[in-house]
Amino acid sequence: MKKIEKRAIMCLLLACVLFVGTGVFTYRYFAYGDEWASYEGNRDLYSEGDLAKGSLYDINGSLLMKNSSEGMQYNDDYSTRCALMHITGDKDNNISTGANRAFINEMVGYDFVNGIYTLNNEGRDLTLTLDADVCAAAYDAMDGRKGTVGVYNYKTGQIICMVSSPTYDPADPPEINQYNEDQYDGVYINRFIDATFVPGSIFKLVTAAAAIETLDDAYSWEITCTGSVDYGHGDEVTDLAVHGTVDLKKALEVSCNCYFGQLAEKLGPGKLEEYVKKAGLSKSIDINGIDTAKSTFDFPDSGVSLAWTGIGQYHDMVNPCSMMVYMGAIANNGTAVMPYIIEPSSLVTNYFKKIPKVGTKTKDMIESSTASSLKDMMANNVENNYGSGNFPGLEICAKSGTAEVGNGNKPNAWFAGFLNDDAHPYAFIVLVENGGYGSEAAGSVANKVLQEAVN
After folding, report:
1. Which alpha helices (DSSP H) does 113-190 contain, by range?
2. What confidence tens digit (pLDDT) does each residue in 324-353 have?
3. Pairing of strands 228-232, 286-287
């Protein structure tokens, strides 16, 4: 009798293990089946080690890249291929943000009813929010210079332009060697997503927001700029010109380093750090499963280092995508809409992996009244400094940046802002590495890209 009881208990235990194991397997099958199906050993998906199924299209239906048993096929236009190489990926799969690495599960299109089966046996068509023509215009405008261009709809979150340079034609990849390695330095990095750079004066918008929301005299406080501020021991903050008496609006217009350096001291390191976090710059952004690099900062207690921090120098390092989203927050009355790049209608879902929500808003990055003030100031920058005539037909609000990078190199040129236009609600970021002055080098790129996006 005791033997029967022991055997019964053992059977019950084994049944419990079987039941639990079956439950775990079933859950993992539904939740992770797409990852199992996309494993490189699946011969139904791969040909000679390369993904052989799945296609990418832009928002207008233009083919960007198609996987086949003969290899990757690309758009017919040279500029489009080069512009989107960091999204379509290359034949050697070197790009971490390339579709066959970043979007492989979506390209395969697995679901637990049909598996990887499709009627045409060519995988899934994935539609991106990108506009190939706008991206090609950005590539042409960069003219071989290193940097990045990003544009997104600050009302919906759709990224319409994401271009990183240097790049190359993925249909005819070059042989990179000691003779051309400088030309292709960092070519496998998506600068819009994976990199950070010294922001220079575009960071003054964050310092200005902190002042407006925490200082009673933010709008009336003035200094007399003599072109430099001496901090002793050979340390000083310098300007390219003597600006005379300036308040916040005028200081932002002429990008007065002396003013913003002293404003940073007046705010203190704690407030600067608080508003960097509030602006979302210290966090990574998830773009359909691709995480951006985090911006990084140091906040010295006082002195010339704190001054340069508030100006956008010292140890400030900003991710371009994060700064673009902050521009979107200013345009959108203080609240940012998070960016995405895959049209949800082209995604396959199941009960365990829902289609990501789009149009997701952040907490307020700045107060709506602060956003309104910054919007007016950025419009004033264009009208009275950069020149409205350089942006014909565009209701543009912007801030330029000329970021010193040291080692005898020319400064990085930035141009960041948005269109104050309900019909074309686009926020943008342009970086031209070693481009010189922001409004000249990066501003002209922004105009060409935005003209294509609007017209």
Report:
1. 132-142
2. 999 999 999 999 999 999 999 877 655 445
3. unpaired
